Amino acid sequence: MTFDLKQLNAFLTIVSTGSLGRAAETLHITQPALSRTVQRLEQQVGAPLFERHSKGMQLTAIGSSLLPHATLLLREAENATEEINAMRGLAKGTIRVGAVGNVASLMLPLAVGAVLEKWPQLTVFIIEGVWDRLAEGLVKHEIDLALSATTETPDEIEAIADCRWQDRSHVIAASDHPLRKKRKLSLEDTMNERWAITPRGTAPYHQMQQVFRARGLGLPNIVVETRSIIALKSLVTRSGFLGWMPESIYDAERRARLVNILDVPGATSTRTLTAFKRRQGILPGPAVKLLEELRRLASRPARW
Fold first, then answer.
1. In terms of domains, do 207 and 242 share one?
2. pLDDT tens string 220-250
3. Whole-angstrom Cα distance, residue 225 to residue 52?
4. How does strand 222-225 pair with strand 195-197?
5. Per-residue DSSP letter, 137
6. Cα separations (Å) of 247 from 166, 186, 238?
């Protein structure tokens, strides 16, 4: 069965907008013309793709089955067009990448900046999130590379073994935090301080918990849990909280002398980060350029 890309685009637009009318507006065509396009696709498939309701369009079982394949076909067609046009000097290519917060804070910007200096015609699309969000983005072809801590992966995803690096996490505090005046500081001294950290189930939370357990301690006084890196850094620098972060997250604040590591013996944790891609298919050219720069940075000693 050969699919028409125009028909698949119409199908996906209806799915994303939820109605025939909104999809027609998005595609800048009339509703009857869009309806005919979908009908031709349904005739080719041999079954209805949508159930039409007063509140919108809902996928049938066959429509749901077609959805991931339609997404894949359109994205691969876009990648091929971008690659060919970029080689002919006719259009820009797009790097589509996702990263966890600490990678998005420093490693990724360094790599993106270096790539764009060499290939200024490229553009970059970035999503930031936890691993589950990045894995979903890879599988759905929203992104072509994901940068995260080493972890178990779905069958559709594989780690890129030669693009790995490490980061270290520490207890951090404002430069004028009262604990800095204490001599021979220990982890026990931080227990009753106010802490701000990412929520239970996240990698930083788990790392910090392991560090305290290794000292025979329970969790400290965690007052704030949030996924907002901005909020966490503000609580540490402005409100006297203690935090637990990778060095790359607070690099700018450290350089500005607003925050730094709290010198607590043994309160350091190291983890390995790596790049991931889809197991099947060819990595688009723009993503290859970013991967090459990430490999170069990963092979060098950390600069933070």
1. yes
2. 999 999 988 899 999 999 999 999 998 888 8
3. 43
4. parallel
5. H
6. 11, 20, 18
What is the domain-level CATH number for residue 287?
Answer: 3.40.190.10
- The enclosing H or E element of 109 equals helix 108-118
Q: Based on the domain organization, do 176 and 261 belong to the same domain? A: yes
Report pLDDT digits (tens) over 84-134. 765 655 446 889 999 988 788 788 999 999 999 988 888 999 998 888 889
Residue 256 inside a domain? The answer is yes
Task: Summarize pLDDT for 167-207 with one digit per residue, the tens.
Answer: 889 999 999 999 999 988 999 999 999 999 999 888 889 88
Please report where in the chains the tokens 């940068």 appear, as a residue: 147
**Residues 138/236, Cβ–Cβ less than 8 Å:** no
Whole-angstrom CA distances from 214 to 50, 207, 209, 269 are: 56, 11, 9, 11
Q: DSSP code of 148?
A: E
Alpha carbon 284 to chain centroid, angstroms: 18
- Give the domain range for residue 139: 86-165+272-298
Q: What is the mean pLDDT of residues 55-65?
A: 88
On whether residue 304 sits in a domain, the answer given is: no
**pLDDT average, residue stretch 144-148:** 94
Domain check: are 184 and 124 in the same one? no
Contact at 8 Å (CB) between 30 and 24?
yes
| Closest to 75 in 3D by CA, of 7, 2, 142 | 142
